[in-house]
Write a structure and sequence with these properties.
mainly alpha, single chain
């Protein structure tokens, strides 16, 4: 029934990202992921800077089992609202699902690395996490993402060592 009502509403106002977003959620509740994705993409097209459209898109992509694409949708949402903890959790979950999906394809076993990376990202100060998310969003390939992560982790550990050295000198 909700789908029918939102379809009628869209007929009255085809430029409402809210109607497309809500119909996407209704489709998702019925596990009609393809339709949910179509409507989420329409919502994003109508209002690209609206976090909810990207979240709906990520949800539909997750339902379709396209975890890497879902990760990118949640990454975009996190760029729009970097302090949104719910979006950050969805981003981490999608990244883990994408990694597991990749492991199935490659047979790699690096859960510990992914877990450590996610713990490290979560522990970063807010500004550093925002910068890292921004840098990662510019990457087009997984290799580039790893290079950004390694560079950021190296810079972070250098800062930690410098603070430890300062503390020792001060004693």
């Amino acid at each position: 029934e909700a789908i029918d009502l939102y379809t009628k509403a869209i007929g009255l106002d085809p430029n409402s990202e809210v109607f497309f977003s809500n119909r996407s959620a209704a489709y998702a509740n019925l596990k009609r992921w393809r339709e949910a994705l179509d409507d989420a993409q329409e919502a994003v097209g109508l209002k690209p800077g609206w976090v909810k459209g990207h979240v709906r898109r990520g949800n539909a992509l997750t339902g379709l089992g396209k975890h890497e694409e879902a990760r990118k949708a949640y990454l975009k949402a996190s760029q729009i609202e970097p302090n949104n903890e719910q979006v950050q959790k969805m981003l981490v979950a999608a990244a883990e699902a994408a990694k597991k999906e990749d492991k199935k394809a490659t047979g790699a076993e690096d859960d510990a690395l992914t877990s450590a990376m996610n713990d490290w990202i979560a522990a970063l100060p807010e500004k550093a996490r925002e910068k890292l998310v921004g840098d990662l969003s510019k990457c087009e390939a997984e290799e580039e993402e790893w290079m950004v992560l390694v560079a950021s982790a190296t810079a972070d550990s250098t800062k930690v060592r410098a603070k430890e050295k300062e503390a020792l000198i001060a004693e």
